[in-house]
Design a protein that fits this description.
Blueprint (H helix, E strand, L loop, with lengths): L23 E3 L5 E3 L9 E7 L2 E11 L5 E11 L4 E8 L9 E5 L5 E3 L1 E4 L4 E6 L2 H9 L2 E7 L5 E7 L3 H6 L5 H37 L1
Antiparallel strand pairs: 1-2, 3-4, 4-5, 5-6, 6-10, 7-8, 7-11, 9-10, 11-12
């Protein structure tokens, strides 16, 4: 796979999204009860309008229980006065910027993607999206995205490529599906946030008591 050089415009927007339906199971009383909300998983495509461009974005996001984005990969295609395609990888802040992000498909040689910008909650690396990259992703089984923290320690995130081809070549989510996906992610985070906060508080109180 060719080495990636970051030449994509810094103004590329990050198209956020999230998705999954809540399943229902029959309780012993035969009443239907909603299953606990789950974080949406897998690849999905969203298309829309951004300024003077028609944008289609194939993406996958790894989100923590707290709602923090751990890694997001996006394959964006812009059509308008200027047509362009870009590969974007977003990771949390606190990264070692010169190291960039390495992308490895299965056991192939890793490629370095350079950072172009950082926001308050994430840093973004991007590069031109080529047919060769798309072809490699379609043939692959998984992709490993590795960023390095400020101590130069690697933080690899492995993402399955299962379903990628169908999503890339298929239609985008409609408005209802997109809204449903986003709500499922929000419900999941809200359900898990308070127990995590309670656990953190309990650990802090335990540590404080041990120090006395």
């Amino acid at each position: 796979m060719p080495s990636l050089t970051s030449k994509a415009p810094r103004s590329l927007a990050l198209v956020a999204g999230s998705a999954a339906a809540i399943a229902a199971f029959a309780a012993p009383s035969f009443a239907q009860q909603a299953e606990a909300p789950q974080m949406p998983q897998g690849w999905f495509k969203e298309c829309g309008k951004m300024q003077d461009f028609d944008v289609c974005n194939v993406q996958n996001q790894v989100i923590a229980q707290t709602g923090q984005m751990l890694t997001a990969v996006q394959l964006a295609e812009f059509k308008g006065k200027v047509n362009r395609r870009a590969l974007q990888i977003s990771v949390p802040v606190g990264r070692l910027l010169p190291a960039g992000v390495t992308m490895q498909i299965d056991g192939n040689k890793p490629s370095k993607i350079e950072y172009t910008t950082c926001f308050q909650d994430r840093c973004v690396a991007d590069a031109p999206l080529t047919d060769a990259i798309v072809g490699s992703l379609k043939k692959g089984t998984s992709i490993t995205l590795t960023s390095y923290n400020f101590q130069n320690q690697p933080n690899p995130i492995k993402i399955s490529l299962d379903g990628f081809t169908g999503v890339y070549d298929g239609p985008p989510l409609n408005q209802d599906q997109s809204t449903e996906r986003k709500k499922a992610a929000e419900d999941y985070v809200l359900r898990n946030r308070q127990p995590l906060l309670d656990k953190l508080k309990a650990e802090q109180e335990k540590a404080k008591a041990a120090g006395n």
